[in-house]
């Protein structure tokens, strides 16, 4: 990446991250590093997952929130803190505040997933619902801070937040000292900036690559012009990195230290989530899967040494997870829809289903059409939706139907 932003020394340095690590001792977990045989075989290099989805509150956000709140002066703590978030930052602020004995108020958008709202309340925050989108929720939280004197805890645009998130980078170097490439998702940029500060200070040879969802990729155009720019209507299933404008503080660090920023499609994100669930037995939210999506999309880019992909969070609404899994299975060729014509007589459908059973395809849905004028007098069109094992199995099912004398029309 040839983007370089003229700037002074980054606003967060290694000593800040090391100080945050001491502060977080006994508070945040040193999360596991797990290998991925499947991705290792695809890339030709060892691939490891840094499992921040197993962090307390289900994401890395606790790290930065705790460091930020712990650094407040006594009078600021007495005034309480306020935050705005649809999920992960909300829970991080709520738990950090409870651990430090600070009153917290969290604004969440109307329609935020109920499990995330309940978790934030259980961690000790007062939750207020406001706004249809996060920008409106942020405005409500800022107005509350101005009116009450509560300290606004920004999700990514503060040096203490970045220093806290940077402790992930220190752990990676301790757990996988041979790492050559590190992949991390980017929304506002706090996690990527913190990791880059820690890793580049100690191991400047390690490539640090950010990953954004293609529908919410504000960093590439911002880096190109040299300052943060907003994108209109960011759209992605990865709500954890669905940010329309980079943060000022992380932007400067990322422009100086990151080696590249890649974008990934929605299909790649859903396929990555499915891979984490099936192969690694890990529940990871779409934003946390973005580094895995990058590996799946271009495995040939990462064959020059061990790769660490940061799984930044695991807080995903069950209803959304259900939809994403269906999308991921479709993207992976695990569903097959087809239409064919059979003779309209007793037993015809049973014979067709017998062929499908013999090919080990699972029938999800069957529908009949008898009134199409294109059909013969004794014909019926059958539409089938099948669950398969992948593209090769789809081809095998089609061959079985053809061998049994059925003509697929669509």
Q: Can you give keywords for this protein?
A:
alpha/beta, 6-stranded mixed sheet, 4-stranded parallel sheet, 13 strands, disordered N terminus
Can you characterise this structure?
- The protein has 410 residues and is α/β, with parallel strands linked by helices.
- The protein has 16 helices and 13 strands.
- The protein has helices spanning 14-23, 37-43, 61-70, 74-79, 88-100, 114-122, 134-148, 159-175, 190-202, 219-225, 248-257, 266-278, 290-297, 318-331, 348-358, 391-403; strands spanning 33-35, 47-51, 81-84, 104-108, 126-129, 151-152, 181-185, 207-213, 260-264, 307-311, 335-343, 362-369, 379-387.
- α1 crosses α8 (159-175) and α12 (266-278) crosses α14 (318-331).
- Mean pLDDT is 90; it is low at 1-10.
Side-by-side strand order of the widest sheet: 1-2-10-7-8-9
* Beta-strand percent range: 15-25%
Percent range of helical residues: 40-55%
The quaternary organization reads as single chain
**Topology as a string of helices (H) and strands (E):** HEHEHHEHEHEHEHEHEHHEHHEHEHEEH
Number of helices: 16
Strand-pairing-aware structural class: alpha/beta
Summarize the biggest pleated sheet.
6 strands, mixed
Global geometry:
elongated
């Amino acid at each position: 990446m040839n983007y370089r932003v003229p700037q002074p020394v980054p606003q967060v340095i290694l000593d800040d991250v090391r100080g945050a690590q001491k502060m977080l001792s006994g508070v945040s977990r040193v999360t596991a590093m797990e290998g991925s045989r499947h991705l290792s075989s695809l890339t030709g290099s060892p691939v490891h997952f840094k499992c921040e989805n197993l962090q307390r509150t289900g994401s890395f956000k606790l790290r930065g929130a705790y460091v930020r709140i712990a650094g407040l002066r006594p009078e600021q703590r007495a005034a309480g803190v306020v935050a705005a978030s649809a999920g992960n930052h909300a829970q991080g602020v709520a738990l950090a505040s409870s651990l430090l004995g600070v009153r917290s108020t969290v604004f969440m958008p109307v329609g935020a997933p109920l499990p995330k709202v309940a978790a934030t309340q259980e961690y000790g925050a007062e939750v207020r619902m406001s706004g249809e989108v996060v920008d409106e929720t942020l405005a409500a939280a800022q107005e509350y801070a101005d009116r009450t004197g509560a300290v606004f805890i920004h999700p990514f645009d503060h040096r203490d937040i970045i220093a806290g998130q940077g402790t992930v980078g220190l752990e990676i170097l301790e757990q996988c000292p041979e790492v050559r490439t590190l992949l991390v998702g980017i929304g506002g940029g706090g996690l990527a900036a913190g990791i880059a500060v820690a890793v580049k200070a100690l191991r400047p040879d390690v490539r640090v690559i950010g990953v954004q969802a293609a529908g919410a990729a504000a960093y590439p155009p911002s880096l190109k012009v040299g300052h943060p720019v907003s994108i209109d209507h960011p759209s992605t299933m990865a709500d954890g990195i669905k940010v329309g404008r980079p943060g000022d503080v992380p932007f400067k660090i990322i422009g100086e230290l990151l080696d590249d920023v890649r974008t990934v499609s929605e299909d790649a994100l859903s396929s990555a989530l499915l891979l984490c669930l099936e192969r690694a037995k890990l529940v990871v939210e779409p934003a946390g899967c973005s580094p895995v999506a990058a590996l799946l999309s271009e495995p040939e880019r990462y064959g020059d040494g061990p790769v660490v992909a940061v799984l930044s969070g695991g807080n995903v609404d069950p209803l959304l997870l259900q939809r994403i899994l269906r999308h991921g299975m479709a993207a992976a060729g695990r569903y097959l829809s087809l239409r064919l014509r059979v003779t309209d007589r007793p037993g015809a459908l049973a014979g067709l289903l017998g062929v499908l059973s013999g090919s080990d395809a699972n029938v999800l849905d069957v529908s009949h059409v008898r009134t199409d004028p294109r059909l013969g007098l004794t014909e019926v069109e059958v539409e089938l939706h099948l669950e398969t094992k992948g593209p090769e199995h789809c081809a095998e099912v089609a061959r079985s139907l053809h061998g049994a004398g059925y003509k697929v029309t669509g």
